[in-house]
């Protein structure tokens, strides 16, 4: 388990109001390293570490046993809307530090970049007969 005092002292010195650590289906190993043990989850879970006060977990009411026994208070959410409302309430008006990009965001970014690259290749292939598949030698 992480050293709350040490993390919060550093957060305050850097002007960070909260640190939000997120996991979805085991996609963020740092989340579980902070908690000291890996648990099986199928829903979104959040660890909220404020600069002052007690950290807390936000987890689905569908699988409450996934976060019990970790020594941190748990706030359950029953719906997507409730999850968003709780996060907004907890984190509003605070400088927020996202320790890692969300895995879904990275997946979406990779898909978008891949699509853009494919479109660009098609555009270039149509122009002046230039092929991206050929090797060119600079002289």
Q: Major sheet, described briefly? A: 5 strands, mixed
Give the CATH class of the largest domain. Alpha Beta
Indicate the proportion of strand residues: 15-25%
Question: Architecture of the largest domain in CATH?
Answer: 3-Layer(aba) Sandwich
**What number of structural domains do the residues give?**
2
The coarse silhouette is elongated
- Cα(first) to Cα(last) distance is 60 Å
Mean pLDDT: 78
DSSP, total strands: 5
The CATH superfamily of the largest domain is Creatinase/prolidase N-terminal domain
And the CATH topology of the largest domain? Answer: Creatine Amidinohydrolase, Chain A, domain 1
Helix content: 25-40%
Count up the helices: 4
Model regions low in confidence, pLDDT < 50 over at least 5 residues: 97-103
| Rg over alpha carbons | 21 Å
Structural class: alpha/beta
H/E order of the elements?
Answer: HEHEEEHEH
Q: What's the SSE blueprint?
A:
Layout (H helix, E strand, L loop, with lengths): L3 H11 L3 E7 L4 H7 L8 E7 L5 E5 L12 E5 L2 H12 L4 E3 L4 H24 L13
Parallel strand pairs: 1-5, 3-4
Antiparallel strand pairs: 1-2, 2-3
Can you describe what's shown?
The radius of gyration is 21 Å and the shape is elongated. Helices cover 39% and strands 19% of the residues. The chain folds into 2 domains: 97 residues, Creatine Amidinohydrolase, Chain A, domain 1 (3-Layer(aba) Sandwich), CATH 3.40.350; 37 residues, no CATH class. It contains 4 helices and 5 strands, in the order H-E-H-E-E-E-H-E-H. With 139 residues, the protein is of the alpha/beta class. Strand 2 and strand 3 form a beta hairpin. A 5-stranded mixed sheet has the order 4-3-2-1-5, with helices on both faces.
């Amino acid at each position: 388990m992480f050293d709350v005092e040490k993390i919060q002292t550093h957060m305050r010195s850097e002007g960070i109001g909260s640190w939000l650590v997120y996991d979805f289906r085991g996609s963020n190993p740092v989340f579980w390293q902070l908690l000291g043990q890996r648990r099986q989850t199928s829903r979104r879970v959040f660890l909220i570490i404020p600069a002052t006060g007690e950290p807390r977990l936000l987890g689905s009411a569908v699988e409450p046993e996934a976060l019990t026994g970790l020594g941190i208070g748990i706030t359950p959410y029953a719906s997507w809307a409730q999850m968003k409302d709780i996060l907004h309430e907890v984190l509003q008006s605070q400088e927020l530090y996202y320790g890692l990009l969300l895995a879904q965001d990275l997946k979406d970014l990779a898909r978008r970049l891949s699509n853009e690259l494919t479109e660009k290749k098609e555009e270039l292939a149509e122009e002046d007969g230039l092929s991206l598949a050929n090797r060119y030698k600079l002289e």
